[in-house]
Specification:
This protein is mainly alpha-helical. It folds into two domains: 90 residues, Multidrug-efflux Transporter Regulator, Chain: A, Domain 2 (Orthogonal Bundle); 43 residues, no CATH class. It has five helices and three strands. The chain binds FE2/S2 (inorganic) cluster. FE2/S2 (inorganic) cluster binds next to helix 5.
């Protein structure tokens, strides 16, 4: 197997990573990866970009947003690609978030159980349709549209 060159064209990166040119340009525009430009304005990526792309794709598979991934990558010095210990540290942080997301989904699933076969979508009684009713304390109806003298809010 031949050794990778120090820098790769967008075509080489696309071929080796399985990521389309369009997605690579998008990642670049989003600040997730970077490339130098040749005199002819061709992109040249450092070979470490492949590991960075593997990190991005894996993090996306876990369900992280591009912003979260960028924040994680920004913790690495000099824009370098994540090492094994970086991955270990960052993925450990994500575990907490994944646990919280799983818990929220389980709560959602439990609420759904009472809706199955119902279909009322009642603002008053459906725990799923109006689960976070922060205006309920102000009484029924459109509290924000009523003047405060009628019991609405300012
Ligand atoms: S749809 Fe009727 S309780 Fe949710």
């Amino acid at each position: 197997m031949s050794k990778l060159p120090e820098s790769l064209s967008i075509g080489q990166v696309a071929q080796r990573s399985g990521i389309s040119h369009t997605a690579l340009r998008f990642y670049e525009d989003s600040g997730l990866i970077s490339a130098e430009r040749t005199v002819g304005n061709q992109r040249k990526y450092p070979r470490g970009v492949l590991r960075r792309l593997a990190f991005i794709r894996t993090a996306q598979r876990v369900g992280l947003s591009l912003e979260q991934i960028r924040d994680a990558l920004d913790t690495l010095p000099d824009g370098r690609s994540p090492t094994k210990s970086d991955w270990s540290r960052l993925s450990n942080n994500w575990r907490t978030e994944l646990d919280a997301r799983i818990e929220a989904l389980q709560r959602l699933r439990d609420r759904l159980t009472s809706c199955i076969g119902c279909g009322c979508l009642s603002l008053r009684s459906c725990a799923l349709h109006n689960s976070d009713d922060q205006m309920a304390a102000y009484g029924p109806g459109a509290a924000r549209l009523r003047p405060s003298s009628e019991g609405g809010i300012d």
